[in-house]
Amino acid sequence: MEFNHDFENYSMPEDGLKNNRKSLGKMVKRYRRKMFLSFVVVALVAALIGGAAGAGIMRYVSTGQTQVVNRYLPLSSDNNNFDLITNIVKAVSPSVVGIDTYTNGYGAYGNSYVQEGSGSGIIIDSQGHIVTNNHVVDGASKITVNLSDGRKFPAQLVGKDAKTDLAVLKINATNLTPAKLGDSSKLEVGELAVAIGNPLGDSFAGTATAGIISGLNRNLQSDYGPVNLIQTDAAINPGNSGGPLVNSIGEVIGITSIKLTSTGSSSTQDPFGLFQSQSVTLEGMGFAIPINEAKPIIDDLIKNGYVERPVMGVSVQQITKQLARQYNIPVGLYIAQVQQGSGADAAGLQAGDIITAVDGTNVTTFNQLENILNKHNVGDIISVTIWRNSKTITVNVKLMSSSSVQ
């Protein structure tokens, strides 16, 4: 069979030309219909994505080959709520306050001055109690609370707890809007998180930033031992401290406390010593105190003005395996000091003793000792095994209140 490649000299019969024209017309029409339907589908999906991008929280629902974007986590049960973050901010902002602090100081030549600071807080009841961070109000000689409606009130410090970095204030005011506290134990990584506060003071009061829950149970080391925190990438800046971190239904699930930023040799840039003078650039590393852990602390501060914890009445230092080998002593906790009149003092514990076990459980770190003590109440009696002069002794120690050593 041969094919004629002389197309220039080829002439189609008239009947064939008409038939082909009809076929070509039908093909064009079908093609236009397909293109139109494709354009409509693409435009619809693009419009939905573009509209949802403003909220930043979306979910995809598969509908065959097309993915349709719907709003995620509505503030109410109405799935058509298209103003999620806006509604969260409107609901929570009346419960968020600005805190101005004034601290008296003295210069190098004895001249006095007043240092001003700022932070945020959360109204937790109609009686005027406000929770914030201890580091916001610590050392302040005067504290002023600024409500979202423009009212200002002097605040009384009810109590503070350096270990958990929490403090409670009180103002004499009416028509307050307490925040709704949530359940931080139900959080999941990836959930919506909104932070509201006053970064850099009153000029930026009521600033809202949104992100997600980036991590849970982040144990960071502080001067008072490990602290358990929620990690978020919602922007947190100086002045946000003490403000709420809220979930998708406007419940407070955390109290913003700290942010890790670019680190270097300065300890103030790396408060937990995570990077040991290495220069590391960080973004979106904010942390909040879980509300479930804050609640009992807040209750104690309102009730007593302090947090009552069971303590032995000793100051200890950790003996590592290396030190134990070097000095031929057991691994454990070296008692550096015994508080006079404490349970440890009454039990006969002495400076120089090494605690090796409590309640039959070996202890080699301060955290292990603290975890055991936290399972007890003030007044409980624990058994403490110590090493003294190459001999092992077990004594009973009555736990005392931490308030007696503050």
Automatic annotation (TrEMBL):
Molecular function terms from GO: serine-type endopeptidase activity
Keyword set, alphabetical order: Hydrolase, Membrane, Protease, Transmembrane, Transmembrane helix
UniProt cross-references to SUPFAM superfamilies, sorted A to Z: PDZ domain-like, Trypsin-like serine proteases
One Gene Ontology biological process: proteolysis
Transmembrane regions listed in the UniProt entry: 36-61
Species per Swiss-Prot/TrEMBL record: Thermoanaerobacterium thermosaccharolyticum (strain ATCC 7956 / DSM 571 / NCIMB 9385 / NCA 3814 / NCTC 13789 / WDCM 00135 / 2032)
Residues in PDZ domain copies: 312-390
Keyword Transit peptide attached: no
Name of the protein this chain belongs to: Peptidase S1 and S6 chymotrypsin/Hap
Protein family per UniProt: Belongs to the peptidase S1C family.
PANTHER family on file: PEPTIDASE S12, PROTEASE DO-LIKE 8, CHLOROPLASTIC
Coiled-coil positions: none
